[in-house]
Structures are given as structure tokens and as C-alpha cells.
Amino acid sequence: MSIIIKSSSAHEVKPSEITSESEYLNRREFIKHAGLAVGAAWAGGLSLPAAAKAADYGADFPGLIKTAYGKGESLTSFKDATTYNNFYEFGTGKKDPAVNAQNFKTDPWSITVAGEAAKTGTFHLEDILKQVQLEERIYRFRCVEAWSMVVPWVGFSLASLLKRFEPNSRAKYVEFETLYDPEQMPGQRRRVLDWPYRDGLRMDEAMHPLSFMATGLYGHHMPNQNGAPIRLVVPWKYGFKNIKSIVKITFTEHQPVCTWNVTAPNEYGFYSNVNPSVDHPRWSQKTERPLGANFWEPKTDTLLFNGYAKEVAHLYQGMDLRKYF
Amino acid sequence: MIRLEKPSVGFFKPLVFILCLMPLGLLLAGLYNDDLGPNPVESMIRTLGDWGIYFLLIGLSITPARQIFSLPWIIRYRRMIGLFAFFYVSLHFLSYIWFEQFFNVDEIINDIIKRPFITIGFICFIMLVPLVVTSTNRMQKRLKKNWGRLHKLVYLVSILAILHYFMMIKADYFMPVILLVILSFLLFYRVLTHYRKRR
């Protein structure tokens, strides 16, 4: 009985096909059934396919524009994407952020803009969000630790935000900074990393249409453990470049300091583009393990620029990607 | 008390044996119930490696514990604990070969040669093999004094195993530091008793 519910529902509504309103409603219906299937499957000792788990979709953004980005990708489950996180500000274990970030206060939130731009100062996130058009994009996400996921992010293009501050001609790079607040972020009470967490992009990377600022995922407001209230998503780079809980944006003339690069310069370069032919010194980057993948299956192949080579390869033309890793 | 010793060891040994299998049991139950998290392979490899080190340290605690707390009989559990250390280290290595590399021999050899932390882990595994082979009563008798000398290798294995742990960490060294503190105490105890005996 349980198997019938599970398989038939999974075939009717694939969470990877996020297009129409009707499909969205179908999915809501599917969630109810999935609940039954989860219970029954668990009782039967079966593991659910990722597709069934991915159904936990929120409705925090009414009228959200669905885009064609990532159409056909099969989504990581909401649960996996929100309980397996690297967010050292809330602990170094993968499960820590989901536990320790529960009471993290993200409202009110403001972002300070500084450096080589005409419009600098401190802006309320509320005001920033009033001026943007939120949309959903499904992106592949590849962690430097060789695991990966596929996430439907809610947000807006980074370029549309940065342009508003009118960066000047000296702005060659943009640097981002995460909140430093050891009271709220217990992970910062130990100097595991050189807090506050910082990372940055070259200006042309930041202005690339794929670069995204996310304020939500799976139709939910951004969960604290995933970098609430606002985080970066640059899908062709390793996950740690996608800095979370951003409080500061600085336009700079020189290459910004990046926390992981400072921690281990031989392991984490400034660019950190996903590249299967450039190993991490301690492990191969040729393959990756999608979260929620079947235990008995081998890892899947990692793609150059995480599969976004067509869109972004030109940014690195003539560059030795081994040297500029 | 002395009269109870023999039957109690006979009674407790199977119990301790089952207790030593518990970490594996919990892991398999977690696997079966899909309860190892979104990355079960990583979880499994790490857990098995952790238990390999824990058993090495438990094994190294037996001599200090029996002397400090006057519990001569616990020596009878040492071989079993040591063999379980090898058991978990082997499963750790096997799960790396199987689930991480899927028997891709080229990649495995490449890893062992190119990645120092894997090289060291592999050396630990190899060094444990002669200790397992010579763990029987017969071998112990045959090797006489050399048996003790050979089995001092476990000190080196433990140091390298914790080094292996240190080297795979990205930033947070809390756990290996704790293990290193424990190992330091256990080794320091031996240095101390060694010099006491000499005097």
C-alpha cells in the first residue's frame, strides 16, 4: 500500500518541474500524501527517493516569479538542504547550524555599503528588498568538500543590487562580510576562523547574470542556518564563496581578503571555481556526492564550472586555472 | 573477590564483546532507517574511523587502569579491545574503498600516494596487521620477549592515527586535540613507569 502511494505520487508530480501555478498546487496536495508515504515507508524500513522528500515547499513569497533556471534538475530535499550546512558561525558540525541558529535575530537587518562607489552608507534590508523583483532560480550547488545539492533559491540578481550603489571605475572587486556577533553566533566564540567571515568576487563575476542574492529557498524565507536574511549564491564556484548573513559590501580596487584563503592559501584560492581537474590538495574534485543520494551508488562526475561553463567560461579566458584556482 | 574473578571474566567477556559491536550495530541501524543524515557515506566513514581511534585508546588505557585502580583482571580484555580497534579501522578503510572510491583502484592508489593524510591512515592500517597476526597465545609464546617489543608498535599507530585525524580537519581541531590529550596522558604514564622501574 505504502509503496503504491509513494511511487504513483512521485511520478505524477516531479518537484523538478517548477513551472505553472497548477503544478504548484499539485505539489501542495502531494505534500499531504508524502507525509503518509514517509510514515509508511519509514515503518517499512524503506528509504524514500529524493524526489518525494523534496516536496516540502513553502508559500512565503506569493506571486513569486518562476524562472527557467535549472529546469529539469531534480531537487535536493528541503530537509537535507536545511539540516546539512557549513555555517561555522553556528558550529562546525553539519547539523550544528540548524540547531544553534534557531534564535538568530535577522530583523531588523542592515547592510553597510562602502568603498569605491557613489552611493555608500548603511541601508535597511527592508528598503533594499522594496526595490527588487524576487524570482526563483534552481541552481546546482557544489561544496569544496565534494558534496552537492540542487536548490530552488528565491532572490534577485546581484548585479541589479550592486548597480544601485553606482560603483566607480576603481571598483575592480567587491568584498562581502558576514555579521560578527559572538552573542548570537556561538561558533564565533572560538577562533576557528578569522572572524568576521569575508569573501569576494571580481567585479565582472559579481555583475554576471548568474550571480544571485538569495533571501529564501524552496518558497520559504531563508532559514537561519542557510544564511538568513540574505546570502550570496554564485553557482559556478565552491559553496564557501556563497557568503551568508551579509552585513557589509565593499567595492575595492584590490583583491579582497577571503577567510578560507587566509586559513589555508594552498587549499582555497580566491577564485575557487568548481573544477574537476584541479584537486583539493587533500582530496579529488573529480566527483561529488549529491545529498540524499543512494548510499550504494558511486559518486557523480563533477562538471567544469559546476556545469555553467557555457555561461561563465569566458570570464576566465587565457587564465591558468591551476594557478588561479 | 579473587574466587569470583575467573567465572566473572568468562561471564563478562561475551557481554563486552557485544558492547564492542554496538557502534557498528548503531551505524547499521542508522543506515537501515535512513537516519545517517543527508551524506550517509561521510557519516559512516567518519564514525568507523572515530571508533578505530577510540578502541586504540581504550586498549592503551588497560595497563594504566589495572595498575592505578588495582584491577589486574582487566588485562584479559586487552586482546579483544585491540582486535576491535583493527576491526573498526578495517571497516573504516573498507568503506572508503567501497563507498568513497567504489573500488576505483587507480584513484585509491593515487590517494594513498598523493595525499599525506591518506598515506598515514594507510600506514596505520598496515602496521596493525602484524599485531593482529601475532595476537594469539601461541604467537605470544613463540615470540617471547620480542612479542612485547613488536606490540609497542601500537604507540606509533595511535600517534599516527591521531595525526591522520588532525590532517583531515579543515579548521576545527577540537576533537583531535581532545584525543591527543588523552593519548599523551597514556603514553606519559608509560614513560613514567619505565623510568621508575629503572630506578
Structure write-up:
- The complex is a heterodimer of chains A (325) and B (199).
- By secondary structure, chain A is α+β, with helices and mostly antiparallel strands.
- In chain A, 46% of the residues are buried.
- Residues 1-54 of chain A have low confidence and may be disordered.
- Chain A has 10 helices and 13 strands.
- In chain A, strands 1, 4, 5, 8, 9, 10, 12 and 13 form an 8-stranded mixed beta sheet that branches. Chain A has a 5-stranded mixed beta sheet with strand order 3-2-11-6-7.
- In chain A, 23% of the residues lie in helices and 20% in strands.
- In chain B, 83% of the residues lie in helices and 0% in strands.
- Chain B is globular.
- Chain B has 9 helices and no strands.
- At the A-B interface, α4 of A face α2 and α4 of B.
Q: Assembly state here?
A: heterodimer
How many E-type strands of chain A? Answer: 13
Shape of chain B: globular
* C-alpha end-to-end distance of chain A: 51 Å
| Strand-residue proportion of chain A | 15-25%
| SS summary, helix count of chain A | 10
Largest interface, by Cβ-Cβ below 8 angstroms: which chains and how many residues each? A-B, 33 and 24 residues
Spans of at least 5 consecutive residues with low confidence of chain B? none
How many individual helices of chain B?
A: 9
Report helical residue fraction of chain B.
Answer: over 70%
Strand content of chain B: under 5%
Task: Give the helix/strand class of chain A.
Answer: alpha+beta
The helix/strand order of chain A is HHHEHHEEHEEHEEHEEEEHEEH
- What integer value in Å does the Rg of chain B equal? 18 Å
Number of strands of chain B: 0
Radius of gyration based on Cα positions of chain A: 20 Å
**What's the pLDDT, averaged over the residues of chain B?**
93
Structural class computed from helices and strand pairing of chain B: mainly alpha
Which word captures the global form of chain A? globular
Q: Terminal Cα separation of chain B, in Å? A: 33 Å
Element order of chain B: H for helix, E for strand: HHHHHHHHH
